[in-house]
């Protein structure tokens, strides 16, 4: 049966047609028994499953949030970037879909093979550059006549922005993005063959009053080594991984051998800065602590025990007589 869901009005129309004789129920049954053929375009090979597309969408939604934070801090204006769509298409189709003159940043992502392209709509790119130079974020599209200074400013801005991809992909794999090319003509950027499948992440971008698209093109060859990690099965399996008994014993042994600072507080007091500056050898400081009262024993900076001072042989010592209970820091 077809997976298409009919609306209530379509169901009513279908029942009405059958009851009036316009349609024959037996003919409908025969149609269901006929094998339906679905066309497949070999030039548009689907190499990514829906599950993997969803994983890539989640990763780059995080990347969009990181870019929003980064550009907001750099440009000091309203910035909003969000994922609009994630599609797998032939590389040739991606090149045809972007403007003939645009801002193209080509990155290598070692240790993965291949390169990634980030295409920024010229209106967005010029609004960003205008803000960096102290303007209001006005866009003037003259991408074919970029000066060396404008090229350097843009490439620096996008190079540092793309470093956020390393954090966004941290749960997937460790990469080190490096900007290798800055181009304005898509015809000069030939990363893979025209029919090679690529993932295109399209992001809606708002910079001040200027809006446009930022597209990230990731060839299949880049993601191929880490494809198994994009499935939900991988995440579920890794989340259920339990610590081995040997690992727990080793961790416990190391914790037991860790050193902790232990101190006994004889008392505290307060003096003025003037009195502090005049302190000299032989002066006596009066503490807010009676000699008959127990001392506070601290582990680190946290009060844990109450004790009384004494001696063990020729060494000073303190005997624990009670524990300090209550407070957020207490674990007993």
Structure summary:
With 332 residues, the protein is an alpha+beta fold. The protein is built from 11 helices and 10 strands.
Q: Describe it for me?
A:
This protein has three domains: 9-39, no CATH class; 44-239, CheC-like (Chemotaxis protein chec, 3-Layer(aba) Sandwich), CATH 3.40.1550.10; 260-323, Roll (Surface presentation of antigens (SPOA)). The relative contact order is 0.12. The protein is elongated. The protein contains eleven helices and ten strands. It has helices spanning 8-20, 25-33, 50-75, 91-97, 122-132, 148-162, 164-168, 220-223, 232-239, 245-256, 273-277, and strands at residues 79-90, 103-108, 115-120, 178-183, 197-207, 210-219, 262-265, 295-299, 302-312, 315-323. The model is unreliable at 327-332 (pLDDT under 50). It has a six-stranded antiparallel sheet. A four-stranded antiparallel sheet has the order 7-8-9-10, with no helix packed on it. The protein is 35% helix and 24% strand. By secondary structure, the protein is of the alpha+beta class.
């Amino acid at each position: 049966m077809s997976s298409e869901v009919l609306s209530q009005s379509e169901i009513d129309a279908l029942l009405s047609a059958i009851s009036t004789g316009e349609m024959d129920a037996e003919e409908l049954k025969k149609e269901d028994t006929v094998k339906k053929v679905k066309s497949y375009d070999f030039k548009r090979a689907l190499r990514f499953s829906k599950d993997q597309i969803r994983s890539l969408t989640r990763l780059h939604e995080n990347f969009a949030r990181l870019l929003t934070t980064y550009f907001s801090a750099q440009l000091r204006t309203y910035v909003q970037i969000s994922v609009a769509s994630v599609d797998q298409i032939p590389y040739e189709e991606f090149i045809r879909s972007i403007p003939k003159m645009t801002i193209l940043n080509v990155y290598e992502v070692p240790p993965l093979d291949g390169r990634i392209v980030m295409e920024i709509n010229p209106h967005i790119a010029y609004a960003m550059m205008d803000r960096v130079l102290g303007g209001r974020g006005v866009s003037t599209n003259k991408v074919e006549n970029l000066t060396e200074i404008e090229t350097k400013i843009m490439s620096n801005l996008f190079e540092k922005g793309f470093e956020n991809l390393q954090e966004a992909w941290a749960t997937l794999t460790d990469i080190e993005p490096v900007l290798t090319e800055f181009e304005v003509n898509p015809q000069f950027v030939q990363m893979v063959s025209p029919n090679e499948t690529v993932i295109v992440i399209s992001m809606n971008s708002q910079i001040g009053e200027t809006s446009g698209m930022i597209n990230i093109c990731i060839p299949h060859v880049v993601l191929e080594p880490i494809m198994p990690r994009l499935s939900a099965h991988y995440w579920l399996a890794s989340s259920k991984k339990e610590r081995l008994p040997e690992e727990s014993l080793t961790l416990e042994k190391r914790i037991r051998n860790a050193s902790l600072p232990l101190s006994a507080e004889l008392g505290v007091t307060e003096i003025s800065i003037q009195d502090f500056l005049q302190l000299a050898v032989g002066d006596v400081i009066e503490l807010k602590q009676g000699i008959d009262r127990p001392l506070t024993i601290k582990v680190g900076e946290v009060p844990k025990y109450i004790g009384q001072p004494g001696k063990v042989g020729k060494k000073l010592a303190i005997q624990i007589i009670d524990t300090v209970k209550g407070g957020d820091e207490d674990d007993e």
